[in-house]
Write a structure and sequence with these properties.
Strand order of the largest sheet: 1-2-3-4-5-7-6
Number of domains: 1
CATH topology: Aminopeptidase
Largest sheet: 7 strands, mixed
Distance between the termini: 70 Å
CATH superfamily: Gcn5-related N-acetyltransferase (GNAT)
Shape: globular
Bound molecules: coenzyme A
CATH class: Alpha Beta
Length: 205
């Protein structure tokens, strides 16, 4: 005999009292189906409208963003990461590796275009996404992650600094946003590959 069901009113009460723990995930993608692409474009435009995470200042619309992301997935030096909240695509980041001819800087990679849509912030997704990008960079043999950010992106700056990024410089004429010149901060973080010589040893420190 099956267990008696809770009366509908009580079931609703229990659900309302139990805080919903959203499911967070980050994945590296080399292709996206139409559904995920649509969600990604919506999240991107929402982040642009709110004020950042991309070089774009004006929302671009589905067609332009779709072309951008399809292009990113084709570029050999770029890797695209998407963040999901309860399965919905709500943000992304890119890992840019140096071109093959730049042997001298092959040990570094750049984290760029990282954002989470305003409606999905505050759950720890950006932190998870940056960690995933760092893990991937380390697994590819990189010892350094570089990034730069407008001085006005104060949440991102707080996040990067708590994750151990060192600010090494500020460019006073970094960007132009709505007719105003905005400075930008430059950061790096050393990575440990988890095997072989430590980054300190490699760098002779
Ligand atoms: C920066 C950004 C990616 C953070 O996304 P998020 O998913 O809300 O961040 P998380 O929930 O992972 O928060 C991680 C940390 O960021 C900091 N943080 C997040 N929201 C914050 C806020 N409103 N004020 C201050 N610090 C905040 C905290 O240090 C937080 O750590 P904690 O959870 O231990 O307190 C998001 O605000 C964003 O997309 N901003 C616009 C784009 C941008 O600036 N991108 C970076 C430039 S490349």
């Amino acid at each position: 005999m099956s267990a008696p069901k809770e009366p509908p009113a009580l079931a609703g009460f229990v659900e309302a009292r139990t805080p919903h723990r959203p499911e967070l995930s980050v994945e590296r993608v080399t292709e996206l189906d139409d559904h995920d692409m649509a969600e990604l474009c919506e999240a991107t435009d929402a982040a642009i409208i709110e004020g950042g995470g991309f070089g774009w200042i004006e929302p671009q619309g589905r067609a332009a963003l779709q072309r951008h992301f399809r292009g990113v997935m084709l570029v050999p030096e770029r890797e695209l990461f998407i963040a999901r909240l309860d399965g919905l695509v709500v943000g992304s980041a890119q890992l840019v590796r140096p071109p093959r001819n730049n042997e001298a800087q092959a040990f570094g990679a750049t984290l760029t275009h990282a954002y989470i849509a305003p409606y999905a912030r505050g759950h720890g997704l950006a932190r998870l996404m940056i960690r995933r990008v760092e893990e991937r960079a380390a697994s590819l043999g990189h010892r350094v992650v570089n990034l730069d950010v407008r001085e006005t992106q104060t949440t991102a700056i707080a996040l990067f600094e708590t994750l151990g990024y060192e600010r090494w410089g500020t460019h006073p004429a970094y960007a132009r946003v709505n007719g105003r010149t905005v400075a930008g901060h430059f950061y790096y973080k050393l990575l440990e590959p988890g095997r072989g010589r430590s980054t300190g040893q490699v760098m002779g420190r």
